From TrEMBL:
Domain of life: Bacteria
Region feature (Disordered): 62-118
Compositional bias segments (type: Acidic residues): 65-118
Organism, as annotated: Cellulomonas bogoriensis 69B4 = DSM 16987
Protein name: Primosomal protein
Length: 118
């Protein structure tokens, strides 16, 4: 069943109004009315977007982000510096291919290979 785009737009506008009202009259940060209005708005947006595609072959210039994507981005914020490899810290590839003779610099006879470590 195809939804009439005009009816879907009216529903989307009403959902925007409802969301605005819920946000502007919230009593605390975790007000369930805001969460409910968010869900209604997201659903109305998807219905309108689908109706535009089916009837007119057009899409909106924006989309709803997946909640899973946001969760993956947030996971990196919880990492400690100790959890990261040296490669991750500076983005450089620290591995040296020892089989590649171009990477090796010969020592002079009087150079001590462990001098830097002291």
């Amino acid at each position: 069943m195809t939804v009439d785009p005009r009816a879907a737009l009216d529903r989307l506008l009403a959902a925007l109004e409802g969301h605005h009202h819920a946000v502007s009259t919230r009593r605390r940060d975790d007000d369930p009315a805001v969460d409910d209005a968010y869900d209604v708005l997201a659903d109305a947006f998807e219905v309108y977007d689908d109706a535009l595609v089916k009837v007119y072959g057009e899409t909106l210039p924006f989309y709803l982000a997946d909640d899973d994507t946001d969760d993956e981005d947030d996971d990196t914020e919880d990492l400690d510096e100790d959890d990261l490899d040296e490669d991750d810290l500076d983005g450089a590839d620290l591995d040296v291919d020892l089989d590649d003779e171009d990477d090796l610099t010969p020592l002079e006879e009087d150079e001590d290979p462990d001098a830097d470590a002291r």
